[in-house]
Design a protein that fits this description.
By secondary structure, the protein is α/β, with parallel strands linked by helices. It has two domains: about 180 residues, Rossmann fold; about 110 residues, Rossmann fold (3-Layer(aba) Sandwich). It contains eleven helices and eleven strands. The strands form two sheets. A seven-stranded mixed beta sheet has the order 3-2-1-4-5-10-11, sandwiched between helices. A hairpin with a 2-residue loop joins strand 10 and strand 11. Bound molecules: adenosine-5'-diphosphate and 6-O-phosphono-beta-D-fructofuranose. The site of 6-O-phosphono-beta-D-fructofuranose has 9 residues, from loops.
Amino acid sequence: MSDSVKTIGVLTSGGDAPGMNAAIRAVVRTGIANGVKVKGIRCGYAGLLEEDIVDMGTLDVSNIIQTGGTILYTARCPEFKKKEYQKKGAEICKRHGIDGVVVIGGDGSFNGASKLAQYGINTVGVPGTIDLDIACTEYTIGFDTAINTAMEAMDKLRDTSESHERCSIVEVMGRTAGHIALWTGIASGAEYILTTEEYNGDIQKIINKIQDRRRLGKKNHIIVNAEGIGNSNEMAKVIEIATGVETRATILGHIQRGGNPTCKDRVYASALGTKAVELLCEGKSNRVVGYKDGEFVDYDMQEALAMEKGLDPYLSHISRKLTTK
Ligand code: ADP
Ligand code: F6P
């Protein structure tokens, strides 16, 4: 039985990610196990402001651990960045008896959670984004599924690229972060991995490398392009004209955000959802849960938001080694 919180609200916010449902399920089931009521807040902060709030029982989260997307829906809600709406959100929580909220999303969503905490609602953030761009944690819900989806797509592209002796540019998601590009580039044996963190715009270097490899007898070339680099179609034209090698761009897009979560995403999302509820039941607030050095951990939300993260330097190192010649 929890002495600190009586009713927990749970919402998903920002881009959806496979495994969010496993986290929602864990929040509901752990809440019930701890004698706490759980309410689902649909459509993120937008739904909170519209009081789109439903009671959640154990059967409401049956049969969802294996599904992608989020049964609570998600949304972006720009007005929640304004004080008046944050205050209103906290008042709505209080009116519905909600004294703790689990926010599943990215850094933006955590900012919203910290504002709710300022207005007296206990909050815990659970990292949910396929981009892996949350500094305090080595794991974010959905990344594992997304990179496996992208890797499988690249394997398929390689078949047709090889048959036609083409160069294929594959654009993967990651608005400001190149983690998906780096992981999938290594996993699919790409010759070029372009990330916002490391690519300096030197297209001539890529063109030279393609020409060198053609001379060596290489039949196809795979370039992985992080979304933040952009211009994949334009890049394809430039490379085709300069090298004479037929070049096609494929933008994988939102398929990377969908699909059944991998085993890792189901298990880690379950652990993080459970931990978030346990923290609220211990009377903690303004925390973010995560995974670091082999353990599920938690941090002060402001400290977590102030942390910075780049690409894994060792993965960058090996990607350079494997693509040099
Ligand atoms: P993510 O959570 O994946 O980083 P966004 O940056 O789009 O995604 O943020 C999701 C939502 O979180 C926003 O639409 C908004 O409702 C809320 N949010 C973002 N930044 C803030 C902020 N500074 N203050 C309050 N709420 C915020
Ligand atoms: O979920 C993160 C992310 O996938 C980014 O990589 C991408 O830029 C963004 O979401 C796009 O989201 P939407 O198309 O929903 O605005």
